[in-house]
Amino acid sequence: MLSLPWRTVALGLIVLQVWFCVQVECFPALFDRVTQLPGQPKVGFQQYSGYVTVDEKKQRALFYYFAEAEVDPASKPLVLWLNGGPGCSSLGVGAFSENGPFRPSGEVLVKNQYSWNREANILYLEAPIGVGFSYSTDVSSYEAVNDKITARDNLVFLQNWFLKFPQYRNRSLFISGESYAGHYIPQLAELMLQFNKKDKLFNLKGIALGNPVLEFATDFNSRAEFFWSHGLISDSTYKMFTISCNYSRYVSEYNRGTVSPICSRVMSQVSTETSRFVDKYDVTLDVCISSVLSQSKVLTPQQVGETIDVCVEDETVNYLNRQDVQKALHARLVGVHKWAVCSNVLDYEPLDLEIPTITIVGGLVKAGIPVMVYSGDQDSVIPLTGSRTLVNRLAKELGLKTTVPYRVWFGGQQVGGWTQVYGNILSFATIRGASHEAPFSQPERSLVLFKAFLEGRPLPEAF
């Protein structure tokens, strides 16, 4: 008669153990689940956000936001998205201004019908330490940060993120981003391949780089031709901008604090003619873009006495600084009083900008990793001409033949841009009418490009 209660107790303990496993131990990501963001419309997909520690000793933690695919996430790939700067937020720029599921509008969020989580599970990472909600309790962590430190931290982040989300460990993984992510992504991908030689953790299937910094001189010096060909500077200024002081020389001098008199004169003339009323990240725009585009401010050093004109109303900044939003995101401010698009505490090594990453991209292609470089064709900061030149040159160095000749591609019933593919593994594409942040200015066309990239198919030839 006494055996029944003990059986009942044992059964109860088993049930309790299973419940605890489901709630905590076996699914640690449940702590990071976002039930609903303030002002959010109803959606059918899951969201998660929170912290992943990359250094226990100095309490260094990177913040992430993860939006699972809208439909059947178990069958969709995982995509890591990184914004540039260096030092700008993938949460504020990527997730809430470009290709994420929502965009702030006043007090509420509106659905982005061209969100990239229609095609994949998207993971947005605020990196390096000191960006957005990512933090360290040791302020020395913000000093002398460089590409190597960023790549290492991002690798550790992914390793530990997979502990929270073990179901994604063997999932097809892609990395995409823009601007200075042309440094972040190739270096991270290189570390992932090295790590896989010891422990097959990363199922890396490809990288996509938007208006990326890949080779300092080529990328920056293509700006003069872009300005001139679009009528932004005169013939005489174009000549000075290419012969007397090109842009890479000016930025190099600026970063070393030794701007020469000739470069100062040339850049003053360029600034006068291009006008501060034309946005350099999209030369077709009549008015300022939101300060989310400040992720590229490091690529455009200020002239002496020049002020940066940004929109007064920045709904992303306002939204992410609300306490109810931070609570819903499981986010906290450590060492700063306000969330910012680009970090005010990070001291990033400016000379890393001059180290080429196009050679690393070549190594990835050799290792069998597909690479797509795409350019918003209205961006004068990292113009399409430089990126196109670099991809073409790399294809020749690798002995890759053209497999898709230069042609138009379609998004909807309009020309979406132009593309060329080499060896079915390296490709270049433009997005017609797009700015430096292509998904922000041309969301529909950017989604078409993203879908083709994930599927490993050439961009559509017809509508």
From TrEMBL:
The keyword Protease applies. SUPFAM superfamilies: alpha/beta-Hydrolases. GO terms for molecular function: serine-type carboxypeptidase activity. It is found in: Secreted. Residues 1-26 form the signal peptide. This is Carboxypeptidase. It is an enzyme of class 3 (hydrolase). Its EC number is 3.4.16.-. GO terms for biological process: proteolysis. Probable carboxypeptidase. The keyword Nucleus does not apply. Keywords: Carboxypeptidase, Disulfide bond, Glycoprotein, Hydrolase, Protease, Secreted, Signal. The gene is LOC111290640. Pfam families: Peptidase_S10. Belongs to the peptidase S10 family. One of its GO terms (cellular component) is extracellular region. PROSITE patterns: CARBOXYPEPT_SER_HIS, CARBOXYPEPT_SER_SER.
